[in-house]
Description:
The structure is a homodimer. Chain A is of the alpha/beta class. The first copy, chain A, folds into two domains: 3-80, Arc Repressor Mutant, subunit A (Orthogonal Bundle); 87-199, 3-Layer(aba) Sandwich (Rossmann fold), CATH 3.40.50.720. Chain A is 45% helix and 17% strand. Chain A starts with a helix and ends with a helix.
Amino acid sequence: MTAASRRRIPEATVARLPLYYRALMETGERQVATISSERLAELAGVNAAKVRKDLSYLGSYGTRGVGYDVEYLLHEISRELGLTRDWPVAIVGIGNLGRALANYRGFGARGFRVEVLIDADPALVGHRIGELAVVSIDDLDEVVREHSIAIGILATPASAAQDVADRLVAAGVTSILNFAPAVCSVPEGVSMRKVDLAIELQILSFYQLRRATSGATPPRERAG
Amino acid sequence: MTAASRRRIPEATVARLPLYYRALMETGERQVATISSERLAELAGVNAAKVRKDLSYLGSYGTRGVGYDVEYLLHEISRELGLTRDWPVAIVGIGNLGRALANYRGFGARGFRVEVLIDADPALVGHRIGELAVVSIDDLDEVVREHSIAIGILATPASAAQDVADRLVAAGVTSILNFAPAVCSVPEGVSMRKVDLAIELQILSFYQLRRATSGATPPRERAG
């Protein structure tokens, strides 16, 4: 019985837990034993009241005047997020993005083991990326079942995304991370999250525009 | 004078505007003229009251029983986010991720023109990716100024990230998108956003864990 099955945690809180986790990891690397909700809020880019509320769902309340124990909180969050488990991952679409994801350090460290690389291009099949050989899309069903793949990552062109999503679901995958610039649908009971690499650029652009129109001399000119 | 300089929009609202923009683009492609706050909320993954509150900061209130005009709202949000401007972008670090970003369709369509590719590897300098030739990091300052680069994308290894961020800032860049798995700091007046490709995986893992421990037969077994 895990914490996740006991309590109901709002979706927005779930989405912030990885931000706290990352902030705490960075703090932990700096050998800090405790952290205040204010500091954690600052590192995660939210407000302190929200941090306290979010962490209360995990049963973590911190100690007045001391804050939260970093190690304990890291343990709580990683258990809640399922990072203490091993999730076998398959990447479909081994173009530049698929290769970048296959080599991405941040996955393995958090329990996401990339075990299968799949592509439709016969010229790529058998090609090695790190320790893995690319498998043909014709064998998708077989390798996904064989490796008990929990999470599929779509890094295909937009035109192939829905078809690949359907095949992953048919093979038993219940979580899909979609990097393809396409709207895909999945049946009830399957989770899909979309990563749009331009989202963060748009947030930067908002602040860039604000600076450009604020009348202040931009750093560009001051530095020149 | 733009909308951004007139009103104060909360940071959390700014971060949600790109989600609304994407949802509306997808709706617009399907030739829908109006959209309810409930539908927009569903597409963007937030609740309807939040959508109405967020859009009220833009002066958009919708029409009772009709909803929001999709085209007008798209225009409002893209103006607010600065997507009606052209932001020249430089990518530093032309490994797999840098190449994937250089070829990413979603950037150009939203006003983010990748104009400069920079790498430290002499073997890569002069190499063409699409229409651009990779420039040496030794020429960073010169090309960044020459192209009036507004946004720098860090796709370097972790060890090089802070140094490259410093050089971009010294050359006048005031917005940095950091894909490197490293904590970087930038001076006041410069925006930096970090993209962590494992964040979404962790959210999927939360729901995967919940399904695995809910006692329901997972689809994997039902399909087999």
